[in-house]
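Q: What structure does this chain adopt?
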Amino acid sequence: MEWVWELYEDYVRKELRRLGRENAGDEELQNAFIRIMSESTVTVLVQEPWQNAVRFKGLAKYEAQSMMPLLNDPLNYLLEHFGGGKFKLNFHQGLNFIATKNFKPEGEPKWKDLPDIGY
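A:
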């Protein structure tokens, strides 16, 4: 899950600086990362054509305890659950935006008939 740390690293370091921990060591960084991950959500969005533009349709929102299968193998998870398409994963801690990551698994779109979760 190195790719998740790469998304979170700046956010974790800023959070530690905010708490007065400017020179946090590896163990403190890891503990802060685990704490923030445990308070995080990830929203799965898919890009869909709309009129003469595109928009993002919300497909799912996962709390920390249920996001691990997605994070461990995002391409296969997205393909298995939603089919092919241009997906965006948005990570938040509460209302604070952390990062986004795009994925484009190839395959038939299964998401077209799914309801928009209204992210």
